[in-house]
Design goal:
Length: about 525
């Protein structure tokens, strides 16, 4: 930041600093002092400025009242808010300030106690409460309300812009003051929204806390996208403000900017591959899996997932839950991928994949791989739907056998794998698995029997000896009979149909093993 001499007379005479984020604060204060601005500051910020040799007054020097209650009360005083709220063009306001010996405050630099950061690191209830800022939001709102007379800054990124304007013009134009004020009101709204969400989630009634009567969504735009699902639709990517490590924070190592559709597919495939601790690979096309597999190594898992449906994999999105090695990079480099997602990439793998400059490589941090409860949002015309992420526990050992024959050990492993995959397939969803590899997937059909037909057709001869997972119950026995005729040996489904007995009898008649989970996995 350049701190050269001003070329214009500065209208700012007094500034108030109170920041928890001290990035750039010393340089900004130095620049203001060079313009003849007097600086007032609170505790920790005062120390940082004084230690840097910057002349600075304490707030108590201005209010004539000491900080009390361990700093809880320091700026909530007429000498502060009178100096912020007085209209500069109102003679009565000027007379009131003069009568009370209050000086106008022309610039406020405030950012708030780190409530979000405390919540993200799992701070205790007492820590959360102590990090609810009171005086800071009050000063920000006072300054933003009176933005025609007071410049309000809440982001270190704005220091240079404001300082340059003060040097060049001696003031900030009205449009800059207004944009800073709007940004400040958004900041305090987001802050209060996050406090409300965190404290509600920590309350004794978790369901009601998840869905309060009123929700304010705090979102930060991370990028404008080239277009939406189609070129005629504008689009942008937003991040939930204050959240911890998430998939959206992935590091893009190479390739073109991700599109709207890329983000949807990438999120879908990442959610799916998170399900397994064993080496796993998942391929998604048009927001539904087209291949998934486990392997003794990640290279084996990739080979099986790709070979499950190589035609659909072309132009798909791939996720693996192990670092990409040189061997894996060589194997995947012969296929056209839109996006590849992994925990990391070896130096040799990066060199191999760099030969495809348009290929988007995403590296997801270790923290983001943990599956955490969260809300999912979808828009409907005039509103928004909210629901919990589908993390219903459904351990295979809790499933209920309903047929005479029980699945053998290999079938049971395949059923458990298929049940995890079907959760990410568009309903009506059918998944066929053999040897921990998907061999047929029927997705997004208006009838369940149609989904079965598609999955069986895709599997061909591989359906013989495969197991089948259905995301919801069978309303009729026809799907079970089709599967049995194709050689499917075992079925897992939620159960719960009025005609469950018909499906069970059909399975028994065909020698199939069938299990009920009691849990449904619709994905619309």
């Amino acid at each position: 930041m350049d701190i050269s001499k001003s070329t214009a007379s500065c209208v700012i005479k007094q500034a108030l600093f109170s920041v928890s984020d001290k990035r750039g604060i010393v340089e900004f204060a130095t620049g203001l002092v060079g313009l003849g601005v007097e600086i007032i500051s609170t505790g920790g910020t005062h120390k940082a400025l004084a230690d840097a040799g910057i002349p600075v007054l304490r707030v108590s020097d201005v209010t004539g009242f000491p900080e009390i209650l361990d700093g809880r009360v320091k700026t909530l005083h007429p000498a502060v808010h009178g100096g912020l709220l007085a209209r500069r063009d109102d003679p009565r306001h000027r007379q009131a300030l003069e009568a009370q010996g209050i000086s106008p405050i022309d610039l406020v630099v405030v950012n708030l106690y780190p409530f979000r950061e405390t919540a993200v690191r799992g701070g205790s209830w007492d820590e959360l409460v102590e990090n609810i800022d009171i005086g800071g939001p009050a000063m920000i709102r006072s300054a933003a309300k009176n933005h025609e007379g007071v410049i309000v800054i809440i982001r270190p990124d704005d220091y240079s812009r404001v300082l340059d304007l003060l040097r060049e013009r001696g003031d900030c134009p009205r449009e800059t003051r207004l944009s800073l004020a709007i940004q400040a009101f958004q900041y305090t709204a987001d802050y209060d929204s996050h406090i409300h969400a965190v404290l509600s989630a920590a309350a004794t009634h978790p369901k009601s806390a998840l869905f309060p009567e009123r929700i304010t969504l705090a979102m930060e735009r991370t990028s404008a996208l080239r277009y939406g699902e189609n070129p005629g639709q504008a689009a942008a990517l937003y991040r939930c403000a204050g959240e911890g490590s998430a998939f959206i924070d992935s590091t893009q190592l190479q390739g073109k900017e991700l599109s709207y559709n890329n983000w949807l597919d990438a999120d879908s495939v990442f959610r799916a591959v998170q399900e397994w601790d064993q080496p796993a690979a998942v391929v998604v096309k048009h927001n539904t899996p087209c291949g998934a597999a486990l392997g003794a190594t990640i290279e084996e898992a990739f080979k099986k997932a790709y070979e499950a449906d190589p035609a659909s994999a072309f132009g798909g999105v791939l996720a693996v839950n192990r670092p990409v090695t040189e061997v894996l990079a060589e194997a995947m480099s012969g296929v056209f991928w839109e996006v590849v997602i992994a925990p990391s990439y070896s130096k040799e793998a990066r060199e191999i994949l760099s030969a495809k400059p348009n290929l988007r490589l995403l590296e997801v941090s270790e923290a983001a791989w943990a599956i955490t409860p969260s809300l999912e949002w979808r828009s409907v015309q005039g509103g928004v739907l909210a629901q919990e992420r589908d993390l219903q526990p459904s351990p295979p050992e809790s499933w209920t056998p309903v047929t005479t024959r029980r699945p053998d050990e290999a079938e049971f492993r395949d059923l458990a794998f298929a049940w995890k995959v079907v959760k990410y397939v568009k309903s009506n969803a059918i998944v066929l698995v053999k040897g921990l590899v998907t061999v047929g997937i029927g997705a997004g059909q208006t009838s369940r029997v149609s989904a079965v037909k598609i999955a069986l057709e895709q599997a061909g001869e591989s359906a013989r000896g495969a197991v089948l997972a259905s995301d919801a119950f069978f309303p009729f026995a026809d799907a079970v009979l089709l599967a049995a005729q194709a050689g499917v040996s075992a079925v897992v489904q939620p159960g719960g149909s009025l005609r469950d007995q018909e499906s069970t009898e059909a399975a028994n008649a065909q020698g199939l093993a069938m299990l009920h989970t009691g849990v449904r996995h619709f994905r619309h």
